[in-house]
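Supplementary Methods S3. Input chains for the assembly prediction are listed below.
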Amino acid sequence: MRRRRRRPVDAVVEDQPIPAGPPEPGDVDLLRTAIELRSADPGAGVPSEEFVDRLRERLAADLAGAGPGASAADHGRPGAERIPRRALLAGAGAVAAGVAGVVLDRSLLGGSGGGESQAARPSGELDPVDGTWVAVAPASALADGAAQRFSTSTVTGFVSADGNEVRAVSGACTHQGCLLRLNADAGRLDCPCHRTAFSLDGKTLFHQLIAAPPPLPRLRARRAGDQIEVFLPTERS
Amino acid sequence: MRDRPMAETSGGEVAGGGEAPRLRPDLRAVAPAADRYADWREVYDDNVVRIHRLMYAKVGNRPDAEDLTAEVFLAALGPMRLSVSRGEVRAYLLRTAGTVLASFWRRRLGVEVTSIDVDAEASVGTGAADIAPDGGPNARRARRILDALPDRYRRVLELRFVEGRSVRDSAEAMGVTVANAKVLQHRALRLAATVPEEGR
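Predicted structure tokens for the full assembly:
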């Protein structure tokens, strides 16, 4: 697997999601041209039947869960409202960013006034009264921009590297506590429950809730030798 | 909660705990039934191909196009009012698509690489059956770019972008090494990026 960031234009050539991150000089023109060329085949972009069917199902589950007109049949489908959209819509290898727009669209769609206007309040730092530095990952596992999940008996979280700095955030969504998943391609943490995502440093990136969930609590993190350590509540035996 | 546009269930009943829909003076008259979508499934079935093709033409890859298509419908269908005409629903989907795409670029690269011209797109049909034999304006633009290139450059781009062949396959088809095919593709794309828009 390649660790080096793929150029946007290469992603288009390979029919892969466009990687996140600021483009290099000249990238944008090449990318735009590559995108335009993709349409040269008159039948380009017709969706697969499989995708069309899966999205229809997803919408049925979504609309059933959202409105009072939900039908019993839709409610009765086991797990229908808990299927992560990405797992449903994309194959395991086709994970991409791109859920953007939901928050933005709420004003356009006549949503009930959530979104950006209710700016998320900071959740601050998770700083236990009785804490210990605990090694959670080898330093070698954290290339710049990479992240890794850790889990102890008290806290689940993610450590990531930003240049020389290491940071750690809680791994539980601040909406209802669902455990976040690392979306490595998009460099963010996705909530499997309600289409909410956070940046690796804990900021709320987007959501589809009435009010923006607060950012993720941060934890103290440091490099210690060849380990990444996080300051966590002391475990009781 | 603010007034939400009226939603209807797939059975055609009005959602909202059995309350009859109240007309609001600020809403337009209800469109005649023949010019309305019966339910969200009809909206979806009639528009999903078009929205997906549009997104594919704007991002150039299937995974992102699928995500963005899903996003448009997830965002638009819930609060959608079905008492308006089909044309208005389509226009609304297009506007949502434009917003979703703009937000995608802002987040993904911080630069709006492509955008949706809602007025121009509104004149294009909906389903797969409406695809013009020449593929419509996006395909024409692509064709024009390819036609402006020298043969070998055009060929490598056709193999890679139109036929979707791997770089190895393309190299073989052109009788060059893989490394040469990569260089050709890179140069061809650079040249293609300089082909001006029509009318410029």
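The radius of gyration of chain A is 20 Å. Chain A touches chain B through 74 residues (CB under 8 Å).
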